[in-house]
Amino acid sequence: MVSRSPLRTLWGLHGTAVSVIAKRTWRSVFADNLFGRAAELAFYFLFALFPTIFSASSILGLIARSASHIYEDLLGYLSLVMPMEALGSVMKIFRETTEASGSGKITFGLIATIWSASVGISAIQDTLNAVYKVQETRSYIKARLSAIAVTIILTVLGTLCLASMLGADFFASVAHHRVQDRFLALGTVIAIRVICWTIAIVLLSLSFAVIYYWAPAVKRRRWHWLSVGGAVGIAGWLLVSLGLRIYLHFFNNYSVTYGSLGAVIILLTWFYITGLMILLGAEINSEIEAAAAEKRLIGKTLPGRRNSID
Fold it and tell me: DSSP character for 137?
């Protein structure tokens, strides 16, 4: 019996070497046209964004007038990953639409928000079906209801994620003013921020898990709180988003070249990165499952060569 190292069995790699998964994923990235599909997702994300803002502001508008700083703080946390130029356009539209919202629009706004946001999830369903190499067997109604359900879950998780970061500032401020001892106050503030940001990261990973579990039309589903693909997707998304922010900070020529369209181009670029990282994580998970299936097949046909795929 061949022993397996902890690295090779982590998150259910089924004994397949990390290098094998990396090579298979690299080939599949081009075979499945992930870069083109990420561009498709970017368009649908953009298509779903602004109707969502218009309709969501109908719900939040009445409260936002009396507590607008709360919503600006929540949107401001997006600046940690979203480029400031793009976020500025989003917040501008948010302010303009909240000023015109009323109570009569709340019901319609709720329905329109969920429906418009589910357009992006429907696009994710189609692209993940291609990544997992499965045909869409669900009817249009069933697939769309699934997209709406995923949209609602992701909305709740996203709200909780932003609220945890807002709570970090609130409780840290309370601790800073209430705790008299300087070092104890500093330690309390650090502990509060670590706890709240850990909760935010857990909620973000849970969002990826929900997408990978419900979006593709696979017959046999397996729930993973944090899959290998999810971890790579989250880490890649955060790192590349940070890299884009740094690049735009030092080499931002979009506004000079494209004028007011520069913010839209930056927003599309960020959506492209987001879509690409979601697809990359799904591709990794797909290749892990495919390698495991091949290993089981080899084990059945050639019992003495169970580890030949390594």
Answer: -
